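Hi R.,

As promised on Friday, here is the backbone we talked about, encoded as structure tokens. Could you run it through your design pipeline when you get a chance and send me back a sequence?
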């Protein structure tokens, strides 16, 4: 029975994403933090982990970015995108709200709402939106900014619902496991890699040119410090296509040539299922022609 560790506890957005990934017999295992979700897979305690990776309002989730490059590699095999708006939960009968707790990514997405509706409440960071709900239940804080589903797990009341500074906000989640057979290409895939480049003029432009030359669409570019020297960065690159496709494989080989370090983070079907705008046919015809020339079969 496959086990999926997810960034919990029960009632997080990540639990909803994990349920969307899960098949009938899969067991969902809540853990307290993103690094613990990765550790569960690396230790063999679970087969997969489900973590948030990026939000359309607040951007990349730093804990996930860091866990992706640390220790033994894990690769993404699927992604899921959820609409994100929040419920503000309180203990039944709460008269005054002086503290409001949540995950920092969630607090950042309701900053304006809090300023307008709870200007005197102090925002407090918790490990997750559901951990905030648990803390409110325990009497530690007055209100939690939580996933709407949290109210089905914890006996709290809804002080407000549909809370969000930006309508139609979305968060993307990944399902990761230890490297193994890759998901089959579907024609609508995403490939993720992280590269560390030598510190020289134009190196990032060279990386991006390798993609552009092959007609590969970039869907994400994020930089994070290497945590070594000041000014040294890693680049997280998301692109459309699957490593099994000739031009994507060729582009990754080119990125490898330009990089000091490169880590493959997976090729997996895109949640929107929109076909990647590139032509494998032209690329395959070109490599076939070179093969023919090498074999002395073509002029
Ligand atoms: O705490 C949760 O409920 C999460 O799943 C984490 C998380 C995040 O890290 O971005 C997920 C989606 C929302 O954007 C807010 C918080």
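Update: got your reply. Pasting your designed sequence below so it's all in one thread:
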């Amino acid at each position: 029975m496959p086990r999926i560790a997810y960034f919990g506890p029960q009632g997080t957005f990540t639990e909803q994403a994990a349920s969307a990934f899960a098949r009938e017999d899969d067991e969902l295992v809540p853990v307290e933090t993103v690094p613990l979700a990765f550790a569960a897979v690396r230790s063999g305690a679970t087969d997969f982990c489900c973590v948030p990776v990026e939000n359309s309002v607040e951007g990349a989730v730093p804990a996930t970015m860091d866990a992706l490059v640390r220790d033994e590699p894990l690769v993404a095999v699927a992604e899921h995108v959820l609409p994100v708006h929040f419920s503000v939960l309180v203990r039944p009968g709460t008269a005054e709200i002086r503290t409001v707790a949540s995950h920092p990514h969630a607090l950042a997405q309701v900053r304006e709402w809090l300023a307008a509706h709870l200007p005197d409440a102090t925002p407090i960071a918790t490990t997750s939106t559901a951990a905030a709900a648990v803390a409110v239940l325990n009497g530690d804080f007055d209100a939690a900014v939580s996933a709407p589903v949290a109210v089905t797990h914890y006996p709290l009341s809804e002080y407000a619902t549909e809370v969000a500074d930006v309508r139609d906000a979305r968060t993307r989640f990944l399902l990761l496991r230890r490297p193994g057979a890759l998901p089959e290409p579907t024609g609508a895939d995403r490939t993720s890699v992280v590269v560390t480049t030598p510190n020289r003029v134009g190196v990032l432009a060279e990386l991006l040119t390798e993609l552009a030359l092959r007609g590969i669409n970039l869907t994400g570019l994020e930089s994070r410090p290497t945590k070594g020297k000041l000014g040294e960065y890693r680049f997280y690159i998301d692109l459309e296509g699957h490593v099994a496709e000739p031009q994507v494989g060729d582009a990754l080989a080119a990125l490898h040539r330009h990089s000091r370090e490169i880590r493959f983070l997976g090729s997996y079907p895109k949640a929107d299922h929109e076909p990647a705008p590139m032509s494998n046919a032209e690329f395959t015809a070109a490599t076939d022609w070179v093969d023919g020339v090498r074999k002395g079969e073509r002029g």
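One thing I noticed while checking it: The radius of gyration is 22 Å.

Thanks again,
M.
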